[in-house]
Amino acid sequence: MPKLGESSRRDQTLRAFCLVLIVVQNSSLILVTSYSRTLRPAYLPTVAVFYAECLKFAAAVLLLAAEESSLRRAVSLVAALPFEHGSTTLLFAVPALCYTLQNNLWYYALSHLDPVTAAVTSQMKVITTAVATVLMLDRRLNLPQWGALLVLTLGLVVMQLQDKTGGNGSQDRNSLSGAGAMLLATMLSAYSGVFLEKLFKSLPLTLWLQSIQLSLFALPTAWVTMVVYDYSHLRRGNLMVGFNMVVWVAVALNALGGVAVSMALKFADNILKTFAVGISIVLNAVASALLFDVPVTARVIVGVNMVVLSTLLFNLASPGSPLADRIARACGKRAGRDPRVA
Questions:
Q1: Counting runs of H as helices and runs of E as strands, what totals does the chain give?
Q2: Cβ neighbours of residue 83 closer than 8 Å, sequence gap 6 or more
Q3: CB distance 46 to 222 below 8 Å
Q4: What interhelical angle do 207-229 and 176-202 show, nearest 10?
Q5: What are the C-alpha distances in Å from 325 to residues 133, 181, 318, 330?
Q6: Which CA distances in Å does 41 have to 46, 175, 297?
Q7: Cβ atoms of residues 173 and 113 within 8 Å
Q8: Which terminus of the chain is more exposed, N or C, with fewer CB under 10 A?
């Protein structure tokens, strides 16, 4: 019994750590990256994406080494991936391309949206992921989940309408191109996320080895994007233009996002991640008002609450959750049978 209690406490500690990690990473990433895009001279987003991929790869190798209790063993496993798991490794090429494009779009969006609008608009990924799940994994959504998606869409519309009123600097920063870039980024994130979910659940390799398989394609893709898109800067030898401590923190937080998602997949659940994202959106609104003079109007409050509550409802109504079980029992009673009987 003591061992069982210790295991339970350890699991609770890991879940709590995941919650804190996701909240800190989500809220600080948008705030720091948004601020870094206002600094001059402006840094090159493609370079930031490339260095973030380098950090993700290094972190995955170190975490694999910790898992194997040997750095040499971890390096040998990584070196053997193309030879022993070549066909499965190739499957990570498409999501790696999608993630690289998504990260570049993310920087563009944060250059044209204030932190609050960026945080809320990024929740469009709930809708795009739901659609991708239905199409790619043949899953079904129940009525409360479709209702939550409708409320989420209305909340995002409310946030965009807010940009058309008023005349302060934060309003001028928002643009349709920024919202469009964020929307496209969420679509790429949805496709690659669902595709990776299929891979994670079907392949026998550990989570960190699969993360390294993704990096094996994401790193060269990010490098090629950097060279092609910013070749003129490469020729002049100023790829590092605009890099300072704030930019490096933004890059590190971007890389931490990959680790946070992996840990959430392993130790947490969708409801925990939903609470974390909801908390981070609220923190973004408060911090943006204090640090960036972003006005928290009644319309912003309504939009933020609609997005947070709809995201929570969507995950609470997912199959296997208590709310979904209650809905199933209620439907069973209306049908005149005991839903506990198969």
A1: 16, 0
A2: none
A3: yes
A4: 150
A5: 21, 38, 9, 9
A6: 15, 22, 32
A7: yes
A8: C
Q: Which residue has the tokens 């995201």?
A: 311
- Can you tell me the distance from the alpha carbon of 305 to that of 294, in angstroms, rounded to the nearest whole number? 17
143-165: per-residue pLDDT in tens? Answer: 887 887 788 777 767 765 644 44
CA distance 129 to 195: 10
Structure tokens at 224: 């090629």
The SS3 assignment for 300 reads: helix
Q: pTM of the full predicted structure? A: 0.74
Q: Which two tokens stand for residue 315?
A: 């995950």
- Token readout for 204 is 């026998």
Helices (H), 163-206: 169-173, 176-202
Structure tokens at 36: 């870094």
